[in-house]
Amino acid sequence: MILGAEEQFRVGVPAKGQENRLISSVAANNEFQVLFEDDGTTGYFYALRDAGELELLDALHVYNVADIEDRAIPVSLQIFWDAHQTTAVLLLNGQSHALYDFPRQAGFCRNAFPPAKNGQPGSRELTDELVEKYFAA
Fold first, then answer.
1. What's the pTM value of the predicted model, to 2 decimals?
2. Contact by Cβ (8 Å): 9, 74
3. What is the distance between the alpha carbons of residues 48 and 67, in angstroms, rounded to a whole number?
4. Tens of pLDDT along 72-121?
């Protein structure tokens, strides 16, 4: 696994001088990119492709700020890429919350929301078994 980004923050609290919190990571090929956003209401993990123009491939719901009980406690966020840098996973406090597979254009998150805009077949629910399948040593 390749660490793409790491940051500590408080859920629902924007970055200093900003309206939200954005944490991104770009694969070595500069084409694949993921972005975590906490806009004060929700947390989302976005998959983007830059083929001359930035294209939103998927949006994966991570949390609703109102549902987080311990918002005063900082969260540790990490974004990891697989060895080929074609799949990215979002971890909060060491727990996987979203994963995007760029070659398959398949996104997964714990609550499988929202439905895939590209008609992705099968479940979008992220499980520990699925993460293991992508990131097994």
1. 0.93
2. yes
3. 27
4. 999 999 999 999 999 999 999 999 999 999 999 999 999 999 888 877 88
Say if residues 62 and 43 touch (Cβ distance below 8 Å).
yes
Integer Cα distance of 62 and 91 in angstroms: 10
Q: CB pairs under 8 A, 24+ apart, for 42-51?
A: 43/11, 45/90, 45/97, 45/98, 45/100, 45/109, 47/88, 47/100, 47/102, 47/107, 49/102
> What value, to the nearest 5°, has the Cα angle with vertex 45 and ends 54 and 75?
135
DSSP code at position 128: H
Torsional class of 40: left (φ above 0), alpha (ψ -120 to 50), beta (otherwise): left
Q: What is the dihedral of CA 84, 89, 91, 94, to 10 degrees?
A: -50
